[in-house]
Amino acid sequence: MIKLKAYAKLNLNLHIIPRPLKNGLYPVKFINCQLDLHDNLFFERIKNKIQVISDSSQLAKTEDNLIYKAAILLKKNVNNPSLGAKIRLEKNIPVKAGLAGGSSDAAAAIKGLAKLWQVNLDRSKLNKLAKELGKDVHYCLQGGMCQIECDGSKVIPLSFKLPKFWLVIIIPNKKKPSTEWMYNNLDVNKIGKNLSKLEKIKQAIRFKDKKNILENLYNDFESLATNCCLEIISIKNDLKDNGALKTVLAGSGLAMVGFFNEEKKAKATFNNLKVRYKNILWTETI
């Protein structure tokens, strides 16, 4: 049996450029890191078929599940019908929260199955698979501290590491609009206006300057997400009232992330707010 961890990602600084690419998508520029929050995937070899089982009731039906899609896609590319696998998922990353749980699971599925089936995948093959599965899969295959550009498919590893922060993450009860809907409803007059923050946060990370890291946390989706879900306002206020140094929206939402310098303060905030919010957790950056 093979076991792999699929880590949640967090954008520290997300900018959308209001000039569509030839494919119609908005170009992006942002900085990603990973969190010490992960799903666990277990792989066993069986013949011919792909089975995906999970302890989560929120797992998408088989044909829509990214783990299953990744497995079928890889099997098709290998062109060996006799290959098969039983994949068991232990789900810990909140679903549809902006933390790339599904994309991270898909990336882990590709890596785990490549090892199980003894398939060699170079970068070009990995990129081809990621292109079929979703933009976040490009980053999740790489992991670590990276700058993301173009339509999300260009991943540039950064040589420096984020200093440690502890986080409290709260997901509103409201159903999240699709990422496609979020992009389609952006106000082009309000995005791409704070690109200077990207270089500032990179420099702050390079020199372990926590103050300026916090000052340059940013997400172009936050205004739209707040308009869609007014609960985000109270979540941000509750995090700040309980000691969060700064907050930022995760991905296209709807999770709101509060940053703390000390583990005990993050735990205290979690304990204070878990009575009010059902979907709350605490973790740390890695």
UniProtKB/TrEMBL annotation:
Protein name (record): 4-diphosphocytidyl-2-C-methyl-D-erythritol kinase
Protein task: Catalyzes the phosphorylation of the position 2 hydroxy group of 4-diphosphocytidyl-2C-methyl-D-erythritol.
Any one Gene Ontology BP term: terpenoid biosynthetic process
Active-site residues annotated for this sequence: 9, 136
Designated gene of the protein: ispE
Entries under Gene3D superfamilies matching the protein: 3.30.230.10, GHMP kinase, C-terminal domain
Highest taxon of the lineage: Bacteria
Similarity section: Belongs to the GHMP kinase family. IspE subfamily.
GO MF annotations, alphabetized: 4-(cytidine 5'-diphospho)-2-C-methyl-D-erythritol kinase activity; ATP binding
Positions annotated to bind ATP: 94-104
Keywords associated with the record: ATP-binding, Isoprene biosynthesis, Kinase, Nucleotide-binding, Transferase
Tagged with keyword Transmembrane helix: no
Stretches assigned to the GHMP kinase N-terminal domain: 65-143
Pathway: Isoprenoid biosynthesis; isopentenyl diphosphate biosynthesis via DXP pathway; isopentenyl diphosphate from 1-deoxy-D-xylulose 5-phosphate: step 3/6
Entries under InterPro entries matching the protein: GHMP_kinase_C_sf (IPR036554), GHMP_kinase_N_dom (IPR006204), IspE (IPR004424), Ribosomal_Su5_D2-typ_SF (IPR020568), Ribsml_uS5_D2-typ_fold_subgr (IPR014721)
Listed transmembrane segments: none
Enzyme Commission code(s) on record: 2.7.1.148
SUPFAM superfamilies found in the cross-reference section: GHMP Kinase, C-terminal domain (SSF55060), Ribosomal protein S5 domain 2-like (SSF54211)
Keyword Kinase: yes
Catalysis: reaction(s): 4-CDP-2-C-methyl-D-erythritol + ATP = 4-CDP-2-C-methyl-D-erythritol 2-phosphate + ADP + H(+)
